[in-house]
Fold these 3 entries.
Entry 1:
Amino acid sequence: MKSLKYKIIILPPDHHHLTMRDTFDKGSQYVSSIYELCLKLNYTQEQILIKYRTAKQKNNYYTNYKSETGYGLLKNYLHKDVVVIGPPGSGTIECLLNDLQFYTYEDYNLISRNKSVNLQALDQLHKTLYIADNIKKLEFHMLNKLIYKKNKSKKNLTFDNSYYTKQIVERILNE
């Protein structure tokens, strides 16, 4: 892992979390509220990075804060002492399986009207992770280092008895 100067990486949600009725201001408030919380928790502006996947995502969640845009594995981008904050998704799993701190924040007020967001998948993650649905809960989780729920760990993020697509096809063809 790289040794970067950033201590906080904020991952905005994907662009499909917004609906046509949402304003761009609402999207940037999501990022800004996390950024302001990090400043409140004594991180400096130089220690915080907003990491966008695409230019479209940056347009939807635009801020004037330090940011970078592009795809890539987070584990190659971060160091062991970094704190990552973002919505539940592949970044959550990647960070937690690589023993990085990931605080999950999903603003339900922002996504609850959007039918393209799979809320059932979030329900499954709720069984394993603390997922803050507002900025106060995110602050509480960060201050108390609450990532996994009681008796849960990174082992609960994946299935032990899962199959590769090739194995599934072979099993179907061999029946």
Entry 2:
Amino acid sequence: MEKVEKEVYTNKELRDTLESYNLSDDTIDLIEINLYFKKWATYESNVDYINLSYKGYEYELLGYLAEKRNDPELYYTDDSDEFKEYDSINLFLDKIEDIEINIIENYLEYFVNGESDTWFPINTLKSNLEAVNWIDETPQEIKDEFENKYKENDYYDVRDEDNITYNGDTPHFYEHSNNVSAIYFNINSKGTNYDIRWINKKI
């Protein structure tokens, strides 16, 4: 099968390229659309250590898991509220309208299979939040002593992996834009395979 490879960088270039190759629902035999995020784009929220104790005072460590790699699965919701893979280029183009790739994560639907990597306390994500939730009424000097001993290394020495809970979800993005690194279109049409890659040059 003949193969054609092409990179595009804007919504207009994508549409012009599809038109130039005469690729539409009427001419396409098979289409796969794959979404890619940049590394470290996402995190899993509400990953906490519970049932911990320091000098007789119970507390929790509140945090999240950074995800170095992620595997997004693009889908759309049909009229029956079922999740479907895109099998129509026209449907995809109608969905994104004139949206550019640097903000497209806010306009698409997808699942993300994140590869959890490193735990961080919640205050490294939002400085106004407290990473230590004291369950018992605890003297301030005990709290200060605890922070001085353990905060600098993100409470590594007091994390108990037997008491970790996962009550959040994923994906959450650190940034509101520039999370999608690329969208690949693998298209078969009339004996030719088209590998069209929409690349985010702002990453």
Entry 3:
Amino acid sequence: MKRDSGKFRWAAITIAVAAVPIQVLAQTARPEPARPAVSPYAPYEWLIGEWLTEPRAGPVQRIRQRFAWGPQRAYIMYTISVVEGSKPEALHLEGMMTWNPRTKVLDYVIAHDPGTFSEETGTLALQADGSIVREVEGNRPDGSVEHYRQTFIRSADGHVSTRLMHLGKSGWEPNFPGSEDLSMARSS
């Protein structure tokens, strides 16, 4: 019996040793996925960075928007914090935007007002006029859904602005007084 168990052990070792090169070859034989010559994120690169955003008119409300690359520029992190009056800066939302190769736009999911269990989902898409539109579906804890739209505009002279609107009973309306014309300036 000892001889049989020894033969079995040697057969098992031989099979295991032979399998290692096959696994290594299988791993190295996989071709690298083709990378596009131009990044699908190229139209959105000018947004990367931190922006201080304020209404040109209306109450004092400062918004800090941050767009940051994920590892290897695989996605964009988006964060908004808000300062109202003399209150301390508070996180409003944070999430990730990623390229959807089927629809050719960025999809995103965002935690909205952390701790409330609300979320935003939607798209970020380049428009024919060069603006970038963030279409938002706000999903609330009670199951209700709200629709928002944010438009980023970069003029020929380099000025950047944004509009924050929500879908109301009579169509698209400002989120708050002055949100239809917000100035964006890069923070230092």
